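Protein of interest.
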Amino acid sequence: MKLETKFTESFNLDNIITYAKEHCKETYNSDLEIVLKCAFSDVRNLPKLGYPKKNKEEQPIPLKEYVIKLVEKYQKGYKNRPSVRTGKPSKTHSDPVVELIFFFAY
């Protein structure tokens, strides 16, 4: 996302983690927490996830809604990772933010 992107709330990591915990309940784990810390360390690390909506670029994005959508994408990606599936090998390259995730994890 762009640096100019605005959210309805400030990037308070405690709130972000609380939203994720509320949404995930017992499936929340430290791996997800590391991903959230990395993603929200800089707005440029965040995927667009369909935001901003067309013709509404100046409107702030609801933070709770965004966190829930990001968590759902993460969980879906984890469940469907190539190491679990069988079939054609992945032809995609990893995202540059992976390096940053390892930095926050270790």
Remarks:
- The chain has one domain: 13-80+91-105.
- The first helix runs from residue 13 to 24.
- The helical segments are 13-24, 30-39, 63-79, 97-105.
